[in-house]
């Protein structure tokens, strides 16, 4: 069973909770009438020992925690930037060709990175979450995203099409099984893919859980998150006339699919800027500027809206939760920012309750973005943990 670990500047790991200790001995009475005393002293090496004495047992605890000695100290730093050693385009339908690339160790353990959005595409920094000496790192741009063609195309673009594409790419690269890494919409796709092909997945790292339920869509696109970001919300809201504000999803769909390119671009900028302005706990100017890029924004907004209007093309609202049993055996770490406004923690918590075998790491001083320091550190550490398990297998 998993343990919930909260991480942040003022939080502790799941080590046992002890009273504040001074150099003097103290004595406590437990409700069970079991009494014990403890004292602290400095050893010759300069470490401080805590000695607990009970009726029949005496346990010695060092502040370095003896029980943790066998656990490796996982790296939490992003790896240096690297370049792909191979790349190409894979034709996955009569309409679509997807861009893919490989970096790291050609003979390493394969891991596939599933980007967010949908429509967000990949970026060079995505490679840095993985040890390039151990991992064979595969990135690809989903249909209509990034370098994939045709750009921003919605035809034959569903979750199930993407799952088929992932399998086609795996077969094309002659990979029998791989680790799956995904954040935000990437976590949605990772869950859907692994539930469809659990035998192909060796482990998962998920971030910013998005289950694409109606309450999650309503929270972010129908006014819920406006309570936290009223200034950013006004820019998103004001593009739509008051008589169309009963459903912002539908109002934006109309504009993002307009025959007038300028109307499309205006809607795409407003849609994308809303997400970019809310993705970090602290404002990130570099991220916000992405909303000003018409090419990026058009794919991002059109494809997101297309998937969200269609509820991810899932047959039921709780589809991903209802099918957790298929992936319960897969070693998984979930990394979630406590103050994630785009994908609120309720979804990570619901997944945790349905799937307690997965480790849930809550980052107390973070929002949504994978590039926030606390989240990035835990994503790297999660990959290191899976690496350690693979090496020890």
Overall form: globular
Strand order of the largest sheet: 1-13-12-11-10-8-9-7-6
Largest sheet: 9 strands, mixed
- Mean of pLDDT: 87
Structure summary, number of beta strands: 13
Tell me the helix content.
25-40%
Portion in strands: 15-25%
Compute the number of helices. Answer: 11
Which labels suit this protein?
393 residues, alpha/beta
Structure description:
The protein is of the alpha/beta class. 32% of the residues lie in helices and 20% in strands. The longest helix is centred in the C-terminal third of the chain and has 20 residues, at 373-392. The radius of gyration is 24 Å and the shape is globular. The two termini are 20 Å apart. The model is unreliable at 9-69 (pLDDT under 50).
What's the layout of helices and strands?
Blueprint: E1 4-7, E2 26-29, E3 35-42, E4 48-53, E5 58-62, E6 86-91, E7 97-104, E8 109-114, E9 135-140, H1 159-172, E10 178-183, H2 185-196, E11 201-207, H3 214-221, H4 230-238, H5 248-256, H6 261-278, H7 285-289, H8 294-309, H9 319-322, E12 332-337, H10 345-354, E13 359-363, H11 373-392
Parallel strand pairs: 1-13, 8-9, 8-10, 10-11, 11-12, 12-13
Antiparallel strand pairs: 2-3, 3-4, 4-5, 6-7, 7-9
Helix pairs in contact: 1-2, 4-6, 5-8, 6-8
Summarize the structure.
The protein is α/β, with parallel strands linked by helices and 393 residues long.
């Amino acid at each position: 069973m998993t343990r919930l670990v909260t991480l942040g500047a003022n939080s502790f790991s799941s080590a046992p909770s002890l009273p504040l200790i001074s150099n003097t001995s103290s004595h406590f009475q437990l409700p069970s009438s079991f009494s014990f005393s403890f004292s602290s002293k400095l050893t010759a090496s300069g470490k401080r020992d805590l000695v607990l004495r009970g009726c029949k047992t005496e346990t010695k605890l060092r502040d370095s925690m003896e029980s943790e000695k066998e656990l490796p100290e996982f790296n939490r730093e992003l790896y240096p930037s690297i370049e792909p050693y191979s790349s190409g385009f894979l034709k996955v339908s009569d309409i679509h060709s997807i861009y893919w690339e490989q970096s790291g160790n050609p003979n390493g353990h394969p891991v596939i990175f599933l980007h967010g959005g949908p429509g967000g595409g990949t970026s060079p920094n995505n490679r840095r979450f993985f040890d390039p000496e151990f991992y064979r790192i595969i990135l690809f741009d989903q249909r209509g995203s990034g370098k994939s063609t045709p750009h921003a195309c919605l035809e034959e673009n569903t979750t199930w099409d993407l799952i088929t594409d992932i399998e086609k790419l795996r077969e094309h690269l002659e990979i029998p099984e791989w680790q799956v890494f995904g954040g935000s919409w990437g976590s949605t796709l990772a869950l859907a893919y692994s539930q469809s092909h659990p035998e192909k997945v060796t482990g998962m790292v998920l971030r910013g859980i998005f289950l694409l339920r109606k309450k999650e869509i309503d929270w972010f696109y129908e006014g819920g998150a406006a309570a936290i970001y009223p200034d950013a919300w006004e820019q998103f809201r004001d593009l739509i006339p008051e008589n169309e504000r009963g459903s912002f999803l539908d109002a934006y769909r109309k504009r993002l699919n307009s025959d007038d390119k300028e109307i499309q671009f205006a809607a795409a900028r407003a849609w994308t800027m809303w997400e970019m302005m809310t993705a970090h706990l602290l404002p990130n100017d570099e991220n916000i500027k992405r909303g000003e890029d018409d090419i990026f924004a058009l794919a991002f907004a059109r494809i997101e809206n297309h998937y969200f209007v269609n509820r991810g093309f899932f047959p039921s609202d709780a589809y991903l939760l209802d099918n957790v049993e298929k992936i319960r055996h897969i070693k998984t770490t979930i990394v979630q920012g406590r103050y994630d406004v785009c994908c609120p923690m309720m979804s990570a918590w619901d997944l945790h309750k349905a799937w307690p075998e997965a480790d849930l790491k809550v980052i107390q001083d973070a929002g949504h973005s994978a590039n926030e320091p606390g989240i990035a550190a835990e994503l790297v550490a999660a990959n290191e943990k899976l690496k350690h398990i693979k090496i020890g297998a």
